[in-house]
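Repro case for the chain-ordering regression, as requested:
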Amino acid sequence: MKLRRDASFGFLLLLCFCWEVCAIGPEDLERNPAVQRFRTYLRIPTVQPEPDYAQAIEYLTGQAKELGLPTKIFEFVPKKPILLMTWKGSSKEKLQSVILNSHMDVVEVEEDKWKYPPFEAHMDEEGNIYARGSQDMKVVGMMYLEAIRILKAEGWAPVRDIHVLWVPDEEVAGIDGWGKFYSSKEFEELNAAIVLDEGHISYNNTYIVNNGEKAMWWLVIQGTGETGHGSIYFDNSASENMFKSLASINAFRDSQVALVSSGERLPEEVVVVNSVYLKSGSPTPEGYTMNIQPSVVEAGFDVRVPPVEGLGPFLTKRIAEEWAPKSRNMTFYFKVKTETQTGEIPITTADDTNPWWYLLRTAVSKFNATLSPQIANGASDSRYARMGGVNALGITTIQNVPFLIHSHNEVMNGYEFLKGINVTTEIVRLYGSFSGSPQTSRSVL
Ligand SMILES: *[C@@H]1O[C@H](CO)[C@@H](O)[C@H](O)[C@H]1NC(C)=O
Ligand SMILES: *[C@@H]1O[C@H](CO)[C@@H](O)[C@H](O)[C@H]1NC(C)=O
Ligand SMILES: *[C@@H]1O[C@H](CO)[C@@H](O)[C@H](O)[C@H]1NC(C)=O
Ligand SMILES: *[C@@H]1O[C@H](CO)[C@@H](O)[C@H](O)[C@H]1NC(C)=O
Ligand SMILES: [Zn+2]
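-- result from build under test --
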């Protein structure tokens, strides 16, 4: 039960005790419409492997209507909708547009490991909102919309088009989302100069900005060989051939680990190779036959390749000659390989020669913050934009929350969310006001 306080008394209390220190209390956070909208979005279970995109699209379309933004839905793959909201720019010239991108899906949860149900968006006394997607990346999408709401209320309008894009399936490599979109005429028609996308949580006044990422090579190696009795030695069994591959891969992996542990390289500068599955044997209802040497073996690896000149060709050669050589009856293919046709891994220029970097830096400087570019270890939809020749910068304007992306008890603080909205507002304002002619992304290769 709550006591109704006299308004002026409340005002006095606020003035005397809470000046600056608690301009917003937990109750205000509970009533704050931006926080309410954020929590509503968090409650929509767009969780892999069966995200409820229909419900998300319905909610977001309603938001667009409130904001007076026309919408379009693209469905390159059935049940995988892409929602586009557009704020038309005032310029008569054909200025390139700004895309504010966020993915709607979130990763799976192990519900019993959570303090609160992951799709309830429970908020505690300190304003911590527990929900899957509260960091990755529903918070970012909601900050875009709140920024637009603030700018519209101010009567501000952009000179170039600002698009807010809501995409499916980023968490499953984006194949049916951005993977289809970036080479489409619909994307080309947006004539984008810059895509803003998700970044890292920052711990202080320095925002980590992802201006590139490692290429993702999902490598499958297969070997065949003579089959035979488990009791005898013979040469060139499939397993023997695979053991040689594993030894070679492990030696390479150790060399990369050593570079990081010696401090010679940063984690984002080395190739990552991790074994993700090993498959072989003759299955029986109880397990495997124990006296047959199998004729086929297969192994899967998650390989991440930094955008360093010459590294791609070097690795390709090594795979063909040492990890899966024909001479050992081995073959390989990539389930996914994220790079351009020519093997380039484009990055976006992260210095003031790129006006989008300069504007981003200027916007956050109003909040006494700076930027630090970083090649992301993981993959995001930004790579598709870069492959399409467009600048992409990944920034999540959130500070001071523990980094819990893809972890149990993912959480966002309501106050930090409100602060983040203000920062995003300045970014959108500067991007939307910029009338210069920008460059596109540049590849280091
Ligand atoms: C900010 O945090 C990062 C870690 O993300 C750290 O490397 C950096 O030194 C910190 N900067 C300051 C000014 O504390
Ligand atoms: C490759 O396969 C052929 C045909 O099964 C076999 O004769 C040969 O010994 C195998 N070589 C190796 C290195 O496994
Ligand atoms: C600005 O940031 C620096 C470094 O984080 C900090 O030392 C300083 O106190 C901040 N100034 C203001 C006015 O917030
Ligand atoms: C956001 O900006 C507005 C307008 O400047 C200000 O009144 C408000 O206190 C800011 N919110 C936060 C959480 O910093
Ligand atoms: Zn994400």
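Ordering looks correct now. The radius of gyration is 25 Å.
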